[in-house]
Amino acid sequence: MSCGNIVFVDLIEHLLSELSKNDSMSTTRTYIQCIAAISRQAGHRIGEYLEKIIPLVVKFCNVDDDELREYCIQAFESFVRRCPKEVYPHVSTIINICLKYLTYDPNYNYDDEDEDENAMDADGGDDDDQGSDDEYSDDDDMSWKVRRAAAKCLDAVVSTRHEMLAEFYKTVSPALISRFKEREENVKADVFHAYLSLLKQTRPVQSWLCDPDAMEQGETPLTMLQSQVPNIVKALHKQMKEKSVKTRQCCFNMLTELVNVLPGALTQHIPVLVPGIIFSLNDKSSSSNLKIDALSCLYVILCNHSPQVFHPHVQALVPPVVACVGDPFYKITSEALLVTQQLVKVIRPLDQPSSFDATPYIKDLFTCTIKRLKAADIDQEVKERAISCMGQIICNLGDNLGSDLPSTLQIFLERLKNEITRLTTVKALTLIAGSPLKIDLRPVLGEGVPILASFLRKNQRALKLGTLSALDILIKNYSDSLTAAMIDAVLDELPPLISESDMHVSQMAISFLTTLAKVYPSSLSKISGSILNELIGLVRSPLLQGGALSAMLDFFQALVVTGTNNLGYMDLLRMLTSPVYSQNTALTHKQSYYSIAKCVAALTRACPKEGPAVVGQFIQDVKNSRSTDSIRLLALLSLGEVGHHIDLSGQLELKSVILEAFSSPSEEVKSAASYALGSISVGNLPEYLPFVLQEITSQPKRQYLLLHSLKEIISSASVVGLKPYVENIWALLLKHCECAEEGTRNVVAECLGKLTLIDPETLLPRLKGYLISGSSYARSSVVTAVKFTISDHPQPIDPLLKNCIGDFLKTLEDPDLNVRRVALVTFNSAAHNKPSLIRDLLDTVLPHLYNETKVRKELIREVEMGPFKHTVDDGLDIRKAAFECMYTLLDSCLDRLDIFEFLNHVEDGLKDHYDIKMLTFLMLVRLSTLCPSAVLQRLDRLVEPLRATCTTKVKANSVKQEFEKQDELKRSAMRAVAALLTIPEAEKSPLMSEFQSQISSNPELAAIFESIQKDSSSTNLESMDTS
């Protein structure tokens, strides 16, 4: 609705007035329908009138008129969907009304059906209907419409009120389950749909629902659902043999979603459900869509339960599935092949012992699949699934195929030559090559390996990655069947793949080379040319880190022990370090030095006899006054990496040489010396750790660097090794936690946090004790320390942390600004890595969090810089921290947020500083997807600040950076606008419509908007590429 406000107010007041009069039943119905229609079209405008409207609608629900009841409940549904905030106080009333009328069927008696648990025959139901015809005709019965409206309204409530999930499982879930027996097909479908919505609401928050801490609290939505599974199955299994196709489809959709939410939930109920699935697969009256749904359901159940559960039912399941593989409709065939592939894993699991005899079923499964594999004129999806299914059959049952195996492998060879099927075939061959059955692949390797090698030059990333995986497993398991010529063909293709432009492909290529070095070392003589040059080049890349760096270290260790000519320890050491020692070349990135040092250490670990000499040389390089800073940097880092794994305490002058480097004029050399001392200490704690602690105490000028050394020790040393020193380290750190220098305090806090993980029961209470310290520096240090005790994986400290993190977060009320800021940073870490720690505290924490989003004038000051005055906002950092927390909460705790209160602060952020505007634009993009109806209600208030950002002009005499910042602001604001426009009906907002016209008429804004929409569509296409 786009009428002006005066007209709108008059209209609503008129409707309320007429409803209050209630002159006639027909006009009352019309007015209720009219209000529902207005709500659907302009929910964000009608919300403020709900306090007057809802009591009237509730009153009319009690009038004995089924048509009026239907319209009233439809109006409730509209209010729930379109006015989520304003309807909130009335949700319980609406639920109770819906639950009452969900069972409203005055002309029918369900008691007979309830008594007969085995009533599977639909004809029995017809007799019951006939019996009631004496008293009334179905044509006169309007009650089904009331029940249907109630089911749809419950669906709306369940879909929009995330925060009431636990309550729904207590009240709504049992009521819906009891109505799966509904006699009217359309109503039954809506009851099923409402329950599906409930299951889907349970899915997104599964991460915290499954959290062990959450589970300890007793009844969570997931545990309540688990307890209701027997009732669900009992209600469904009777429906699975109904004549109604629609009902059976609903059953399969329900079971599929249930298993996705609760894997393994049906373990005890498979015997009851299998007959129903088989009934739909065999029933000649079943539609194609029903068979597809039945197969899809069976596939999900097979994937999410133990194979043993199905063994008693394999004999019954195989014939109908095999028949579906032969079905003329390609979609049924495709789904049946997926099921067949899973059945193969069930009848002979390779990852666990099994006594089940698969032999009677092999022939049928093989025959139906080979027929599809051979067919040339079938659908692309069927081709691919036939290849995958046959790959699974050979992988799990290949030792039973006899003479059929070589001929089937020849078909794979043909599919490998086909551009359309080659990627799927590569994946199938990888599966077969990795089989513990050691399938004989010799018949196809001679021709197959060169074909695989040729794929490495194709411009298809997924094919390169798949091929590298296949080649790696072939080298591991079939090296005695591969010839030098085959391997050379692969090696010829590798150099272009080793590049910083695609680190994942590089990692896979390096892993292949490592396997080659271990299994087929004689082939390595060929890599000393272009392959090695690319590898050395990649080591020097600043992008080499993580998995690719680990793969590189493994490769050098495997290579150096092969004894290949010109690729010995000293040869490789020279290649790695030559750019640093050469006068002509220089490495510009610090990361390159770290990577080279790690490679040097990897080589030295593999050849420990070479260690003393090379360590001695590095020590001389650090001492030598003629050494460049680059040489010293590499030497120190290498000493650190080698000393981490090899005890260097025999090098007597090492301590003094490193401490001398602490005085270097180069910050990078000092940092490397600090890292080296910490890393070397890990190699021999008794020798070096007391020395480091002593130096921290006696050398105040070097304290910061020495604390970094200590941080490296605490981060890398074993818990057992560190335990004897914990008390000494703790006492030392506490002396420095009140240091005025923030950088030092941050290092101390990280050390305290990581040290606490070693003995949390003793040390966490000590940290907590410092919260009452009179020093704001000490308070900020211990709150920061807690951040370093939180990680995204389970740890022994978690239950202890959960009990006391509320005390640490009380520092959000601390009088000191910096303490409050670090409290927000710690809160953000918890919300991101382990939301279960803070979920139950949100009611008390959020008001303080939101309070920190406000601009405080008392924190803004003017600073004179020569002739200019510069404004400094001391509150900016804490506001940024608060908005970062808000952004994190959208992903981890959405169901616990009052989204309208949240939006109030997003609106304020849209008018704040550049950094905060950028954050709030990102939030709007997320909110448009997560809570579209709530955002729609606030749209008019969001559009204005977005428009202001997009139309702001920078002064002509501003510096270049100001123009760049404004351009980036505009682009980000436009992304938010594009996201808002994806909300259905957003364009109906007069303000948004006007802004769209403004964008279209401004060439600069129109060009930005168009490029954003193009970027968005291309991103969507990329995400759809499942290869």
UniProtKB/TrEMBL annotation:
Residues 112-141 are annotated as: Disordered. GO terms for biological process: SCF complex assembly. Signal peptide: none annotated. Pfam families: TIP120, TPR_CAND1. Keywords: Repeat, Ubl conjugation pathway. Residues 837-999 form the TATA-binding protein interacting (TIP20) domain. It comes from the Eukaryota. Transmembrane segments: none annotated. Belongs to the CAND family. This is Cullin associated and neddylation dissociated 1. It comes from Myotis myotis.
